[in-house]
Amino acid sequence: MLLFLLKRLSSAIVTLALATGVVFIAIHLLPGDPVAIMLGDQAGSDPVAVQRVRAQLGLDLPLGTQFTHWAAALAHGDLGMSLRTGEPVADELARRIPRSLELIGAGLLIAVLFGVPLGVIAARARGRLAGLAASVLAVAGFSAPVFVLGILLVLVFSLGLGWLPSSGFVPFADDPIQHCLSLVLPALTIGLNFMGVIARMTRASLADVMGRDYVKLARAKGLPRNKAIFRHALPNALVPVIAIVGIRAGNLLGGTVIIEALFDWPGLSSLLVSAAFARDYPVIQGALLAIFAIFILISLVIDLAQGLVDPRIRRPSA
To answer: What pTM does this model have?
Structure first.
């Protein structure tokens, strides 16, 4: 297990180093001049001011020198200053990242808690009413567009029943109860949308594992069907489910723009979009690098989780 961990950790470090270079190059290939955007109308009438600001930001240096300076600052946790607000990018990311991780984590938890049981029911009751109902719920979950699902939840639970706030973010330190209530609808939107994918993946994987020889042997020895499913089949069937949850978590880091806009949740996606419109390159660079780093970390955790569930994964290949 230690060798497996070291291999995955070294691979994650190399991937993060490559991602750092890709982010830096991609930002400098974007059209537009951040200095001209900062100075506005003054940029056209005062070229001396443009050159002075470019020198202050280090944008007049060769690209290789800029990358060296940025990488050295990055090693000390310095992501630069926002061109819009003048605040450190690291401080803004430190506020936004926990909010996005909380939203994504709550949504995926809901998806797993509903999706895995639905998939098990669909696999166990194939051809029966319960299995058909579980399959219909799964298809309905991932077929509905996320913004439509979010609007429906607002109409039912906020405007109709009045149980939950329709939008807004309240810091946990200010009001823990209101914070949790504000989290429910956006997390449900993510969870119900992804629930169907998990249910169908669990159903297909469990149906395949149930046909394996070791499960048939356990049944032939007199092990009850439910015990054969939950003791032998389900742990192996969850390996691809864990993988798809990890991929989805990484994709959601920068892909919850619609949900954050719909529910006014100030997370990482909304920060990245607003920075892109404002050509705030340091914030874009820092946000993209944070998404890469968290995605790599999630991939590492998923690899370890799969290795714990299925020992064959962590065995060295011949």
So the answer is: 0.75
